[in-house]
Amino acid sequence: MKKCFILLAVCLLGMTAFGQVKNQHALGARLGGGNTFGSQVTYQYGLSNYNRIEADLGFHSNNDGNGFILAGAYQWVWAIENGFNWYAGPAASLGSWSYNSKYDGSGDSGAYLGLGGQIGIEYNFVEVPLNMSIDSMPLFGFGSTNQHFSMGLSLSLRYTF
Description:
The protein has an eight-stranded antiparallel β-barrel. 9% of the residues lie in helices and 62% in strands. It has one helix at 2-16, and strands at 25-32, 40-46, 51-62, 65-81, 84-100, 107-124, 130-136, 139-142, 149-150, 153-160. The longest helix has 15 residues, at 2-16. Residues 1-19 form the signal peptide.
């Protein structure tokens, strides 16, 4: 077992040697689908050439209710070729929601915590300071009001600086 752990650690360290975090900051929009929260403001902060953190903040409001989500991820980044990268890492979310039915007056509200990961692919444009990515952040919900699995694809566009 100890040999397997050492081998895994060496492989992971070797993979991080190919990281390509080009810009320290990236700010933009993350547009989601599936059973995810939807649109969010996204920010990435490069920690080194090999990894970064991402924070996403989303608000939702309509006639039936409202809510917010704050999600974060730690990402390892690996180069594919010429501006294309893929990334993966652990993720977590925290949020609140409320619902009021306009038909029968019933309602409910609650808070939630999600734990999971994020995996995606991105392209960093050379000509303009723009980063475009497609990713998925599957999360398992915890708490009395959110005990389910959420997953969907998201498209992100970020200004890099």
